[in-house]
Amino acid sequence: MAEAITTAVEREEHLLVQAGTGTGKSLAYLVPSLLVEGPVVVSTATLALQSQLVDHDLPRLADAVERMLGRRPTFAVLKGRHHYVCLARLEGTSADEPADALFDVGESRPTRWLGEAGRLGKQVERLRDWAMESETGDRDELDPGVDDSAWKLVSMPARECVGAQRCPYGAECFAEASRARAREADIVVTNHSLLAVDMLTGRQIIPPHRLLVVDEAHELADRVSSASQAELTPELLERAARRCRPYVDDEVADRLMEAGDTLTVALADAPAGRLTGALPTVLGEALTLLDAGGRKALDGVGEVKSDDHDPVRKQQAKAMVSDLTKIAQRMIANAEHDVIWIERDDRGRRAVVIAPLSVAGTLNIHLFHERTVVATSATLALGGQFDTVARSLGLPVVVEKPAAAGTPAEAAREAVIRADAARDTADLAWSSLDVGSPFDYAKQGILYVAAHLPRPQTSGLSEPAANEMVELVQALGGRALGLFSSRKAAERAAEVLRARTPGITILLQGEEALPILVRRFREDRNSCLLGVMSLWQGVDVPGDACQLVIIDRLPFPRPDEPLAAARSAAVDSAGGSGFAAVSVPIAAVRLAQGVGRLIRSRTDKGVVAVLDSRLETARGYGAYLRASLPPFWYTTKPEPVRGALRRLSAS
User: Fold this and answer.
1) Taking the CB of residue 542, how many other CB atoms lie within 10 A of it?
2) How far is CA 644 from the centre of its chain?
3) How far apart are CA 130 and CA 118, in angstroms?
4) CA–CA separation, 428 vs 422, rounded Å?
5) Which residue in 75, 15, 73 sits closest to 51, CA to CA?
6) What is the pLDDT of residues 254-299, one digit of tens each?
7) 3-state SS class at 85
8) Which residue from 102, 361, 421, 475 has the least number of CB within 10 angstroms?
């Protein structure tokens, strides 16, 4: 992998690398990064990987190569502005502001409001003391932490910042200092969200660089899609009216309030889900009012100047009105490449949301040009091929040729040959490489598909599936991680196991903080941890604390997921299969991530049990999904699986 990356940089070509858990892929891309002139940027999807790089891998690497390089390599972490405390916001936050801020975000329960205001006020005071001592102002270094509502009062989103030149605290700004450190570092570690914002804003945030390494690359398209997503709520419109009222005529502010009232009416009875065709009449009226009122308000606010009475608040008002006006204009346009839907949650919050149908074109234009991109993950070769991930990243797809077996150097040369083929057929030359895994999956684990179970029909857990789960857990005596497709199914599983497996501790996501649950699961061999989608990627429990992973059903996107549904419909309308092109690849990535929870080291052993018979019986996509998984010993027979679990229990 390291040799292939070096070759890719030399040839200015892009590289997709699948590297399983335990391959040491972070060192494989960090080592050649030190040979690249100028900073190298590494982007991660999770805080866990970011922390691993900064706290463990990079310091070890710096120690190892300092003597060879004749200097110690430097590295820095680059995050969005909102991760750092803003001294201007902190100075302007009074003891009364937390109370005002609660109403500012639409809080409508006055009896709770006074207590909340007092609690937030205390947190803001603690933040003020901490900021005076902190060297970085980074929220991740604040221990103990504070509520999101308190942090929002002392941080500054990028769109609301007046800039260092116009800010009275520009010379002391923590966010500016982090950017300065990044410009001087050999390796800059950032996250997919900031990388997405950087691409969408013309690469003004991350320092210029020749090499970009995207780790956890299977997450990038979704993060770019999220960064391109926008929403409108009545509360946002009301807040914008209040913020701009000091700078505009009352009539102008009232127009924004009227737009908010009209949006409230439009969302009152609208069912959740995707909007197709022309927008509903009342929603269109609300958007038109917002567009006209927003333009008037922007004219009234005018330019933000350094000698304004309060340039920070004025910039906040201008930025908020500008953002909402652009969103309204985008929704009014209702372009074919956007998807619009109504969103409602259990707390009664309602919003109208817009997002791009696809970000492949955006990535094609903004991700790959003027730098070499190495995208790596444990789950890139879906169905044994890189085509699906390549398309999602905006790369042209060429016919894949299996990597040659042999030494790493031979594999690297094979990657170069495939790059030559790509150059002949596409503007963006790229190659792919699967470096395999150090684990002997066929000897370390079993993939068991309960093919005798009926096909899942509801979002809950069927009685036959519950019985199968109980028998597996009883055979092992705990040590099971249950990954469920819905909260309802996870709760039903916990109820059944608690009733039928006395002596086994059942931990259910949501009943306590997740880090506490994971720690208890690691420490108690007689426990099971059950949860939903966030556990499918976020849990790392090597050793015998986790020797059984149970998956209740194949993780296809729900039919009411607006973006997935719209993308499927677009493929269908073009004559293809939306299910095969959209739903199956999503399920493949999720399933591979969930299955990957089992084997985390060379000594781990265990069973992955899938209680969804379609993984065996579905023609076409069943084989595709299995080909996306590690090569476990495969069976559909329950007896040898229970026997293996009983032997693990006795060991």
Assistant:
1) 16
2) 36
3) 19
4) 8
5) 75
6) 999 999 999 999 999 889 999 999 999 999 999 999 999 999 999 9
7) strand
8) 361
